[in-house]
Amino acid sequence: MLNFREDATAFRAFIEAHQQQVYNLVLKMVQYVHDAEEITQDVFVDVFRKPDAYRGDAAVSTWLYRIAMNKCIDHLRRQQRKKRHFLSAFFAPGVSNASEEPSHAVHPGMVTEQKEKLAILYKALNQLPANQHTAWVLGELENLSYKEISEVMQLSVSSVESLLFRARRNVKKILSGMYPGE
After folding, report:
1. Does the pLDDT of residue 17 top 90, yes or no?
2. Most confident of 4-13, 79-88, 169-178
3. Second CATH level (architecture) for the domain 1-102
4. Do the two domains 1-102 and 110-182 of this chain adopt the same fold?
5. Alpha helix positions (H), the chain
6. DSSP assignment string, 91-126
7. CATH T-level topology, domain 110-182
8. Residue 81 pLDDT level (bands cut at 50, 70, 90)
9. pTM value?
10. Where does the RNA polymerase sigma factor 70 region 4 type domain lie (predicted)?
11. What are phi and psi of 82, to 5 degrees?
């Protein structure tokens, strides 16, 4: 349905129309500007390479969200593997000089207090299972309806409702565990 190979202008217009929306979603998922930029670029590279993957059974934005979410989940899984490898190397007997994880720049437009609150929230979100994390970001940060989330995640609406309920409950539990007196 989408054909950009013969029309570079149409592809540029497509990117301009959707890039910020995809980038904002990805940034909310991965939390680092550099990673969000790379993943966003990868999303549009995939769209260019495989425009026939869009079947037209959902809105283009839903299709882009699905691609972006899959890329984010893959990225987060790779990060978890790196973290496990880093920790195992750090705690391995006889290893004295483990390398540090790379530092990342945070979104430049945020105020210090907002950064702190977001850091706390994302710390809690990162403890959720991937499907709860995804549902929470789409529902709470992207303000998608249950139906839209179900299309992006390819789940039933009742499954999305259940995921969001568990995600909210778990975030609340995690945050109360981090700050028991508050």
Report:
1. yes
2. 169-178
3. Orthogonal Bundle (1.10)
4. no
5. 8-30, 33-49, 60-91, 112-125, 130-136, 146-153, 157-178
6. HSTT---PPPPPP-PPPTT--HHHHHHHHHHHHHHT
7. Arc Repressor Mutant, subunit A (1.10.10)
8. low
9. 0.62
10. 120-169
11. -60, -40
